[in-house]
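Q: Could you write out the predicted structure for this multi-component system? I'm mainly interested in how the pieces pack against one another.
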Amino acid sequence: MSRIVLLVGTRKGCFLLESDEDRRDWSVRGPFCDSWPIYHAVYDPGAGRMYAAAASEWHGAGVWRSGDLGETWELSSEGFAYADGDLKLSKVSGLTAAHGRLLAGAEAAGVFESRDGGETWSLLSTLDGQPGRPDWNDPANQPPGHLGLPAILPHPDEPSRFWAVVQGFGIFETTDDGASWTPRNRGLRADWPIENPEVGYCVHKLVMSPVDPDRLYQQNHCGMHRSDDGGRAWMEITEGLPTDFGFAAAAHPHDRDSFYVIPLDGGHGRCMPEGHAAVWRSRDAGATWRQLDRGLPQRDAYLGVLREGLAIDALDVPGLYFGSSTGQVFASADEGESWSEIASYLPGISSVEVAVLD
Amino acid sequence: MARLHLPATLPPLFSDLPRRLEVEAATVDEAIGRLDQRWPGLRDRLCEPGPVLRPHINVYVDREPAALDTALGDDSRVDVIAAISGG
């Protein structure tokens, strides 16, 4: 029987939640990574290793790694640096394990790779020459936090092809391992003036259907969007959702037309609308939406869920999991039809990923 | 020999690193370099490219605020402090 392990990144370390295939009873281990703030924790099934991207206000940014399913962890930041004196590396966030290597997105915006299991890292690209690059690296343009590159989406069959998200500017695709890039934002909505229509979009989460790499979905600052051609063109599919804002999204592992989002109020709130917790699902590529809230708190639940806060496993009947910025983890073993709270008092949650271990 | 006092957040990151130790060094930078030789990666936890001390790492030599180029005497006390912050 398989073990199901959730990797939960929080403001105070990484936690591991474990269950069997029934996904009913869960145990909690942690905090790991010496309670450093964790922005994204992932499992690499090829190498059997766990990784957690972290940034300490005191000791800088790096990636923790564990080769024994969380029993022991080591930190490395070797190679996380920019030669360009104008760029400062303040955070490592989005981790991706694919094709025998790790990719990490960083702030200031850059892509780093590791080919030795996270022991050392090297800079792959800072998207030189792309439209918007001088602006996203201009200190005068930084919001609270700073603009970075928080997510990388690999192509499942083409090792040199992946998509990177630059905060506030949009998606860029490379097919030659970062040597060159193409903006992939055509058709996106922006509720602000755009000087160059190629860039200037606030992409919060980009996901790909595991059964069709041309089918992409994204939740951005103003709406849900879908692409049927690998990001070359986008169409908006927000209609039917309670808000156009949100961070998290997940694609169904077996059905290209099914995916999940967690709409939030925009503005300062950024919580589930009207204190009613819900995940929303479309089974028809965004034409219609259904609210899934059975077992979730129906009132006074002002939960926020961040970019990496929603995960889905690949079992025959997929399980869904989300973690809140107030430290609760909710799980569904039936594709979102019903939910239960499986952890209640964790630190604020940045990320949830799921691993199925045989 | 300068006497170093390190913050509690460092020893969990490096095997057998004590909170208090003595090193032979002429400057703060040299002292950190000696530690980095023994515990590779330690410099990155205290310094940024430049190199300069990280913004929330403070160093005092004989109770006076110091920088990487501050000179150390034969019996200097070096306190490395992780700034009080957060919650």
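A: Regarding packing and overall arrangement: The CA atoms of residues 40 and 351 of chain A lie 5 Å apart.
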